[in-house]
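Hey, I'm writing a tutorial for new members on how sequence and structure tokens pair up, and I'd like a real worked example in the thread rather than a made-up one. If someone can provide the structure for the chain below, I'll link this post from the tutorial.
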Amino acid sequence: MKKTILSVLFCSIVAAVPCSAQLLYKISGNGLEKPSYIIGTHHLANVGFVEKINGVKEALTEIDQVYGELKWDEMTNPDSVKLLQNAMIMPDGKTLKDVMTAEQYKKLDDFLKTKMGVGLSSPQVGAQMNSMSPMAIVTQLQVLMFMMNHMGEFDPTSTFDQYFQAQAQKNNLPCGGLETVSFQAKVLYGGQTMERQVENLMCLIDNEQFNSQMMEDMTNAFYAQDLDGLKKAMDLKLGNSCDSTPEEIAQLIDNRNADWLTKMPAIMKEHATFFAVGAGHLPGEKGVLQLLRNAGYTVEGVK
């Protein structure tokens, strides 16, 4: 089944955890002197959920370094923040009115009024959003929609992803990133035509109920530590042009997974490593877990 582009982007709930459910895996064999670990994260999850994942604290005492998709300190430095801000702005001084029809612009304005109480006519909102790219607005609205359904759950000052690198720093261990901020900015905000970005924004608005339910299903599966359920939720489709193309899935998920597998062997061989990456990157035939097994490693869920 195809993934919707929004489910792939959202990549990245307290339920009974099935015995076979896992978010944390041990990587061993294939010449490794010490095992490494990999955990699937949810970028908006409550950091307290770490306490419900078996073996995390023990694993963090057995490793020599922590790697995320990005190195957190680099992501939050002023140069990176400026780079991300620039990546979210449309080129050549264009505004939303330059790339959207009057009908599309009104639809976005009405949606913002419904969700935030103010729309693009507000001087503050207009100044902030009129120059943002449609894809940047999609990501902002996804966070807004999640937070409206999970009030008080997400703390941007202490995130689930940040937790593992923070623990490493407390233990005086080095941290690293599998990607750079500039690379992720290009993938997230520069990988599509402006027309496709506008279409994705309209897809989010026109299919609000579907997308909200999809986010809930993905989040519930994450909190249940159910990677199969997460992949099933990611693979839901609408059967129209809102479904992401194979090329879009490859750009956002598959190609990145394959690229990480070119880096992880050397990283693990040099130092036992705790990897923390979006849970949507782990399952499936092209997921990181299977790619590690294909490369000759033993990958086991931590009980």
